[in-house]
Specification:
single chain, two-stranded antiparallel ribbon, two-stranded antiparallel sheet, 22 helices, about 40% helix, globular
């Protein structure tokens, strides 16, 4: 849909959008802010759904990294995109992956729209200029939220999914559809099956088709099926300056939600003021993961479209916002009214082509997503680039239609199918190739037999292990969403890229072990208690700085802090066992630590080694990195030096002239134990004996790259 054109048409048809009483300004401001938060909710809602289903497809992958061969000869359960998809499993994975990635793009654009319309509104000042009374209410915009109570509860359990759930937040209750096949669809996290694909097709279905599916008796509930549609619905009836996003009307389709936002953005008041100029903040924080150009991502992926709102004038900014909404609906349901020539699809692809303006650039993707072989050398074709491009020229709806065709062919195998064969058990040969004999770190890595036994042990333990794995997966995803709250409100916060892959690893391994999805709602069993600040949780197997007598001393970690995070976390006073991070440049606190360490002779020689935040007692609240529980196979990809910090509740103190050196190929756990032992010794305590066996959970998890 062309939102700029539509918004202009709606103004012509709806006199309520022009010469509006200025006293309605607080109500209208609140409506826009709730609409932009609703857009964030809708886009975020799709991501765990698509990710969970993608990882249900049976497959294996290698772990590679630039310039190293840490995991040469090892394979891990979990499918990944391929550069030349041949099998039905590979084709389906590439297609779902491409949609999953673009939903992240849509989430970014929705959050940037929210921020761009987040200017603090001074109602008394506007009232004085207008010569009329305006009800005074809170004028400061709320930050974009990625943990909306419509999606998750206070323990970060996803309450919007379940075998009894039927609602797409803000959009539609599927029970209101006339076709009994679609009205029976559940909004559940599931495998690649008929229910999941019908749900995905309904989410991405063209607006007019989806609206036509709503049964007559339910049409009055939805804006999309009311006789005068958006024209009669905006401004919202019974809306106030204190209404919340949960009180928004049901839209019926995603496009209708964006149409309502477009209509609000064209409101003008009797004094000539526009709602857009009141809301537009030319200094807003805009974040971009797709069109940045710099080290590690040299080219814009979508060179013909905006992914941020960076205009300095209200007119230009409004056009940019309309274009962002056009891109979201065109890439999703294929609904944009295209004004440029229809692009030609690559050979073998079918469906509605996305406007060339909103397609990714293949050469850019190849540069941005370089892939490496097991020896650390770059490959000529990137699997990620292939999937993003060849999926990106067709809209989401048609990509899912292609996946449905693959499913109906009977050629797809899921992990549920694999587990249905009682003879299937994990064996060392599944996890190791002949190349492992050439791996110079094979003596450090756990044996393939140990990993296979761990996978089988977890499966045999049944629900108790599945529940634990569900907690781990939910905690990993919370390590993303909670950081995103900061990422779109604090320019110093980095995006948690490894947390994205970490959450995928945890969802993927759950499918591979149990043949079913993790319960991200955290179910009816014991919920993860909220972590207390200023308490040192047990973060790594056998390394409890403040032992809890109710917790097994050799457990892999405290449930409260199951998570993965890096680059933008709040691990301070939580411990952490995992990825080291360069502490230089990680914010004021980290810079101070780095400078202090270099001044007092912690490191000798020239040049001074790079300092890192310790994995077992991370002292850096804005830069460090943790994986709780940590993979038993996690190795350091490079050399470095860690200063040692003594953690106490609410504070950190670096132990003078104490550090731990590590080298490429050292086990993260071994170095963590050294750091832990030094800290305990400094306190005059005995660290005890290092555990001789690794937990099955830690053995099962794949390492990061």
């Amino acid at each position: 849909m062309d939102f700029q054109r539509l918004a202009g048409m709606y103004v012509e048809q709806n006199s309520a959008l022009t010469n509006r009483e200025i006293t309605n300004l607080p109500t209208d401001v609140n409506a826009v802010r709730c609409l932009t938060q609703a857009a964030i909710n809708v886009e975020l809602f799709t991501i765990p759904l698509y990710m969970t289903t993608m990882y249900s497809i049976q497959g294996m992958h290698s772990i590679t990294g630039k310039g190293n061969a840490l995991y040469l000869g090892r394979r891990w359960p979990g499918i990944a995109p391929t550069a030349s998809p041949q099998t039905a499993n590979e084709q389906a994975c590439n297609l779902v992956f491409s949609v999953f990635i673009q939903e992240m793009l849509h989430l970014q654009m929705a959050a940037n729209i929210h921020n761009a319309l987040g200017k603090t509104v001074n109602y008394p000042d506007i009232a004085a200029k207008s010569g009329c009374y305006i009800p005074t209410v809170e004028s400061k915009a709320k930050a974009a939220s990625f943990t909306s109570p419509l999606l998750v509860n206070q323990n970060n359990g996803w309450i919007c999914y379940g075998p009894d759930k039927t609602e797409i937040p803000h959009i539609l209750d599927l029970k209101d559809l006339s076709d009994p096949i679609y009205s029976a669809v559940k909004v559940a996290l599931g495998g690649l099956d008929t229910n999941s694909l019908n749900l995905f097709l309904l989410i991405e279905e063209p607006s007019d088709v989806l609206a036509s599916r709503i049964k007559e008796s339910a049409k009055s509930k939805y804006i999309a099926t009311q006789p005068d549609g958006v024209v009669g619905a905006v401004p919202f009836a019974d809306w106030s300056a204190t209404s919340t996003e949960s009180q928004l009307p049901q839209f019926g389709t995603i496009a209708t939600m964006y149409e309502c936002l477009a209509s609000y953005l064209n409101i003008t008041y009797q004094n000539g003021m526009t709602l857009f100029e009141v809301l537009f903040d030319s200094t807003s924080l805009q974040q971009d993961l797709f069109n940045t150009e710099g080290e590690g991502h040299p080219m814009a992926e979508f060179p013909r479209m905006k992914t941020v709102v960076d205009a300095k004038t209200a007119n230009e900014a409004k056009q940019q916002i309309f274009q962002l909404m056009n891109a979201i609906t065109d890439q999703g349901e294929g609904a944009t009214m295209k004004v440029d020539p229809e692009p030609v699809l690559p050979q073998g692809l079918v469906g509605a082509p996305v406007s060339s303006s909103y397609q990714p650039n293949f050469q850019a993707l190849q540069q941005d997503y370089v892939q490496y072989d097991e020896n650390g050398a770059p490959l000529p074709m990137s699997a990620s680039a292939h999937a993003r491009y060849f999926g990106g020229v067709v809209d989401h709806y048609d990509r899912f239609q292609q996946v449905k065709g693959l499913l109906e062919s009977g050629e797809i195998t899921t992990w549920a199918d694999w587990h249905n064969n009682q003879e299937n058990q994990w064996a060392a040969g599944d996890l190791q190739t002949e190349d492992f004999e050439k791996n110079k770190y094979k003596g450090t890595l756990p044996s393939a037999e140990a990993v296979a036994n761990a996978l089988n042990n977890l499966k045999s333990e049944g629900d108790s292990s599945w529940q634990e794995m569900s907690r781990v997966a939910a905690g990993a995803i919370a390590g993303i969403t909670t950081v995103l709250n900061e990422f779109w409100s604090n320019s110093e916060t980095g995006f948690p890229f490894p947390s994205m892959s970490g959450s995928g690893d945890r969802v993927s391994i759950c499918w591979a072990v149990f043949g079913k999805a993790p319960d991200l709602s955290l179910g009816e069993y014991e919920r993860i208690p909220e972590a207390k600040r200023d308490y040192l949780y047990h973060a790594c197997q056998g390394m409890a700085l403040m032992p809890d007598p109710q917790e097994e001393s050799n457990s892999c970690a405290s449930k409260e802090i199951f998570h993965t995070c890096r680059g933008s976390n709040s691990c301070k006073a939580e411990g952490g066992c995992g990825f080291v991070q360069d502490i230089d440049g990680g914010g004021a606190g980290c810079n101070t630590l780095a400078i202090t360490a270099s001044k007092d002779g912690l490191s000798a020689g020239c040049p001074t080694p790079t300092l890192y935040s310790p994995p077992a007692d991370n002292a850096c609240a804005t830069k460090g990195g943790c994986a709780v529980p940590i993979s038993a196979s996690q190795l350091f990809p490079e050399n470095g030096l860690m200063p040692i910090y003594q953690l106490r509740p609410g504070s950190t103190e670096r132990i003078s002239n104490e550090g731990v050196e590590f080298k490429e190929g050292d086990a993260v756990y071994d170095i963590a134990w050294q750091a832990y032992s030094k800290v305990m010794s400094h306190e005059g305590k005995n660290p005890g004996e290092k555990p001789t066996t690794q937990s099955d959970m830690r053995l099962a998890f794949p390492p990061s790259t």
